[in-house]
Amino acid sequence: MTPRILVLNGPNLNLLGCREPTQYGQQSLADLASLCAASARDLGLELEFRQTNHEGELLDWIHAARGHCHGIVINPAAWTHTSVAIRDALVAAELPVIEVHLSNVHKREPFRHLSFVSGIAVGVICGLGSQGYVMALSYLRQALKEQAA
Ligand code: DQA
Question: Could you tell me which InterPro entries the record lists for this protein (predicted)?
Answer without folding.
Answer: DHquinase_II, DHquinase_II_CS
